[in-house]
Please model this.
Amino acid sequence: MTDLPIIEPFRIKSVEPLRMTTRSEREAALAAADGNLFRIAAEDVLIDLLTDSGTGAMSAEQWAAVMRGDESYAGARSYKRFERAVQDLMGFEQVIPTHQGRAAEHLLFQTLVKPGQVVPNNTHFDTTRANVEDAGGEARDLPCSESANTAGRDPFKGNMNLEALAELLEEEGERVPLVMITLTNNAGGGQPVSLSNLRAVRALCDKYDKPLYIDACRFAENAWMVREREPEARGRSVREIVAETFALADGCTMSAKKDGLANIGGFLALRDLELATAIRRRLVVTEGFPTYGGMAGRDLEAVAQGLAEVVDEDYLQYRHASIAYVAKRLEERGVPVVEPPGGHAIFLDAARFLPHLAPALFPGQALAIELYLEGGLRTCEIGSLMLGRNDEQGRLIPARHELVRLAIPRRTYTQSHMDYVIEIVTRVHARAEGIAGVEILEEPPVLRHFSARMGRVGTARV
Ligand code: F0G
Model:
């Protein structure tokens, strides 16, 4: 007998229509948005894979919890429930709610990082980097060497480079206020970090007396992949793996818009009461009173319930199966994808997809534009547009990879949507040679990918 298919472990109670567009409508929308997919109206998008952040569907239990939200300014019941959910799952005593992940980063780095200090991370996400820099620090990425090869099949390409971390701590340790590790490694392809790598990072932190903080956005996906890929974890429950993960850290920053299964929210959780007190002093100035931070009572409830649902193993199995399904079909058709598929997205390798475009012609953005024009897919470049820098002469220092991320919102799209996505990517791949590059016409000084104006360059017509 063949194995039963892995199905969506839910049925649909509420639907939201999708709006079909014609190619000429999409051309007009793209021109009006100056080639920037962040500037396109959502109603002009058919399948929105821009991000998995805040875009998922909430469960019936979450909506019910929303109705139980206690909107009291101080001491709300909803805060208690939220605090307990975080404590039970992650084991951190101090729980500080924020409106989303970057606010937690801001509070942590403003409190711990002094100008001239260095924060190591397996790979900083763009907002994490921006917040380290905003505090006057240097955000240093130390990805493992296996992550350099997007086609390699190492199971833990999200790992921290332990030799590089040891060297940094040995040689510049006095400049390092904390060590961060991102689960999963989003900018590096949604790749997981192994428990053994985390343990080794902890041991280095102990040796050099540094606190370790986890960027926990996708902790449940990481734990699932640990269970699937790390021999010592086979057969263990996801909850146990999650508990062991956080037991190795001094605290975490969290965007509840990912593995909190909510549309908004986040938190900073830690063990050190003194540090938590200092952070709460800032929290009241920038976010809100300590028992709601940046969130409404109903959002605290939705996140508390979401944290319980996200470690459900049927849910995690389905989520990973649906991402692996898309990656496998694309690979069979010769489309270059980052292997093995990570936890929240399929990453196309635009450098191999469009080998005729140099990094300065932003192959990732060119590909993202074509996917929109071909079939109304909205995806996100994670390459030299997002992560590249210009040197003093204005020349591009390229990013490590030129990727396009097809981020899959949680519990939102069905398998037939995924089949449509596979078909659109395949069609663009079939005409890859004729695809023109992209130039930046105008850009802001930071986080340029959100608002830059762009045009097409080269002779090819789209
Ligand atoms: N850390 C990681 C690894 C992230 O992926 C994100 C957000 C954040 C921190 C910041 O959280 O958005 O709640 O402030 N990533 C989204 C994405 C935006 O599309 O990957 P936030």
